[in-house]
Design a protein that fits this description.
Blueprint lengths: L2 E5 L2 E4 L4 E8 L1 H5 L2 E8 L6 E6 L6 E3 L7 E6 L4 E6 L8 E9 L14 E2 L3 E6 L1
Parallel strand pairs: 2-11
Antiparallel strand pairs: 1-3, 3-8, 4-5, 4-9, 5-6, 7-8, 9-10, 9-11
Amino acid sequence: QVQLVESGGGLVQAGGSLRLSCAASGRIASTYTMAMAWFRQTPGKEREYVSAISWSSSRTDYAASVKGRFTISRDNAKNTVYLQMNSLTPEDTAVYYCAARVSGPGVLISTSGQYPYWGQGTQVTVSS
């Protein structure tokens, strides 16, 4: 199947930066092209879309709340997707999840329900 492992979360002051990584492994991840995305969730709230990227990196998308501050990228040779987060605010505090789905190389998916594979999440805490 597909295993996703996130890393890079932590505690940062408002205005600071963090870079999240999500490494994909498994037979499917090494065989097929996959669309990938980042979502986040805080206690008592639904999972929120953050950003998505196609396998070819030709298409990227961002939630309005992070556009201009976050940058998604990927290295297919390493089966890894990244989320560079700048100008962080306390409202960005959440558990960040990586998601993946087998798809065509130019497909971009921003809906959580279309992703069958999920990581365990990494906590991001932004202090004021």
